[in-house]
Amino acid sequence: MLYTYEDYDVVVVGAGHAGCEAALASARLSLKTAMFTVSVDSIALMPCNPNVGGSSKGHLVKEIDALGGEMGKNIDKTFIQSKMLNKSKGPAVHSLRAQADKQDYSREMRKVIENTPNLEVKQAEVCEILVEDGMVTGVKTYSGAVYPCKAVVLATGTYLRSRCIYGDVSNYTGPNGLASANHLTDSLKKLGIEMRRFKTGTPARIDKRSIDFSKMEEQKGDEEIVPFSFTNTPEDLERPQASCWLTYTNEETHKIIKDNLDRSPLYSGDIEGTGPRYCPSIEDKVVRFADKDRHQVFIEPEGNYTNEMYIGGMSSSLPEDVQYKMYRSVPGLENAKIVRNAYAIEYDCINPNQLKATLEFKKISGLFSGGQFNGSSGYEEAAAQGLVAGINAALKASGKEPIVLDRSESYIGVLIDDLVTKDNKEPYRMMTSRSEYRLLLRQDNADLRLSKVGHEAGLISDERYERVLLKEKLIKEEMERMDQTSIGASKEVQELLEANGSTPLKTGTTLGELIRRPELCYEVIGPIDKNRKELPRDVIEQVNINIKYEGYIKRQLKQVEQFKKLEGKVIPEDIDYEKVHSLRLEAKQKLSLVRPHSVGQASRIAGVSPADISVLLVYLSSFHGKK
Questions:
Q1: CA-to-CA distance for 383 and 199, rounded, in angstroms?
Q2: Are 556 and 439 contacting, i.e. CB atoms less than 8 angstroms apart?
């Protein structure tokens, strides 16, 4: 017998990084929200690497914050080391990364969730999505309880029919030994949802007391901390930082691995899931990069109050005895004592081509999806999708228009567009190289790019948005002053130029032109800028970058204009591609499968050529003419 319990506007299935952002977004938009999880202890769990951010992932976290999400605020509260990566390169690829205290991160996020109005947490396994006439009507738990709702967000992470494996040991559990969700997959298949089997892995955790750090290179955090959240200042976050450590594998390590490949479930065929190309196991590294005589190994603390150390770069599914030999061959780990064995985990996920750019299923109204369930990898990718799915689920339940982020305005837009248009055969990982407009989509200007979207959605307060508008005004005014302030070839100016290895002036110029010189910047020319006002450091940063890279930025803005033209050409949802004569068969099949919402999106689908796009444009022109 089925029992109908309290009804909700939005139900979120899963409490990982995607589920947390989805549930918080929905509740903060005043929708009555329930978040279901197989274990309340898994809220915002970090089952793998104990960090947030990194190359391109830092961009995602900054964008999540600019839209009104929680991840940036939470890592600012709980980091134990902060570091800006790629500082020797241009600002487009600067990426913030913070080492987290795992337990604190989960505890603080849980505290926020449990104290958010309109949001309830329920420990129960959702086993069925209820659908009538192509529309979501509710969810059913394993106990038989039914919870009616207007929209559902699936954020199951790596828990669906999950299996943890190392050597010949196979446990049907989720990460960290938590219960797996074994019943929802069948329900999704009955709804016609295409499922896949992916895999990821994690390295061993080693007792800090058994490590010889004298044989390793110490990796300290930055002296000047850059916050992830635009609501914080560096001064807010000053605290003692923990060190990480760097060591390397060697030929002995590689020999141990090669000699035992036949015992690895990755190579014996016991693991059927597809693993991430850009985060391979140590077995994969040794096989695929046979020419390398060593690989980096990062020793990272799991928190301030534990001796567990994460062995980054050495995830594995080799048997326990081999793991001991392998880890103990690494300098500094000769006496290593394993606290938790490394393991691979395989799980069910979906083909994300079934989703719209809003992350709603094309064939099931009100059913949304986010995170690793969509075939992505990483906490940051998951949180970004969860936020968008949660916002759009709430807007759907409210009868409002959804938000869609495109490739020209955010890394989140790139992430979602890649997922829903490309044929991803392996877990998707965000990289700066995936963005065509990365000079525009820097992490430092995420608030300027996306706060308006967050404000219009209802997640950014009026007060916070006013601060962003003031920042825009100050940047604009200071850039204009720099380009309008002339400077002569005085002795003071020439001495400053000479001191900084810059060519002396022969005629007058402007302060803006001096900033454009590679060896100079806004701060360096301060002594000769007599009318300079005191400005916030984030304003100064934007002034310097925008002036210095002005030519490149203008070029990318022109490219965006062309991009927007194709994005603005909307394709009717009910279009029959079989009636578009002269389209190649492959293009018809791909377009019918993905059903892009615009010509721009269609142009990015593998198998659709420029000639196909031309044919489609001609057809749409006549189609709209008939309308």
A1: 19
A2: yes
